[in-house]
Amino acid sequence: MVVGESAAFSPDGSQFAFSARPEDGSLGSDIYVWQVGEPEATRVTDDHRSVFAGWIGRLVLGSRAVDAVEIVGDPASSAGSGERSVGAQLEFRPEAFLVDPETREEVVLDLARVWRPAVDPTGKRAVYWDGTVRTTETGVDLETAGGRLVVGSWPDEPALPTDADAGPATPAAGTAVPPSAQPSAGDEGSLEVLADGPIRDWDARWNETGTHLAVWIADPDDPTKGRLSLYVVDRVTGRVDVEGALLRDEWALPGFAIGDGRLAWATPEGQDAESSLVKVLAWTDDGIGQVETAPGDEQVVVIR
Length: 304
Hints:
By secondary structure, the protein is mainly β. Helix content is 0%, strand content 46%.
């Protein structure tokens, strides 16, 4: 079962990464990578608390829930059994890491409270959950707990050893980046808050130049729909203009496309007493414009 909205092809289009877990709910999610042409995807993590966040070159950027800090619920019924009771929830600190999908070698990034970062094409900024995560009532799925969805500065890639023929390499699985190369999260003053939590799910995507950012946030009562906003990055300061959004809180289904000066999304069926529509917002230096499809009898979805 695919988990969450974050899934993407590698920059060269040869691999596709996503998060998934067993359909029977026996285990939590891991990151899988499918090589184009292969019959099956390969699991590249095995901790059952990892989710795919994005690509950094040929490396997979992921998030993992570690260091349980609190038990929510009453686990007393399972005392002495070695198992947690149904309904008990664990709260975790998130951990960001890079993993080579071919060798499965991994490096943990020294970033505080960063969950599911979406890094812009310039490598300078990222959207991420700044806070903690917890298991849902299923005991295996993960959701946000205390925190907020923010845009912050993103550190340079760690100074990993390289091989001229093989490209960038990574240390052995689980090893930390050397102290001299450890990145740090953005300063508190540099964070721009997009939404206070907890939130059920979200999807953040940058355009190909990193000048525009689209963010979809799931409705708290109905995760099959959400609100979509489009932000502009200030060319002078490099900060995202949260207040001056080109599009703000537009109802949208999961899945949208951004690129080439356009943002496309589908509206939920029944919204404003209309059928599901495909809408496209386009922008240039001279202004913005919007078009939409004629209403139809079926719900539609934007793929790319």
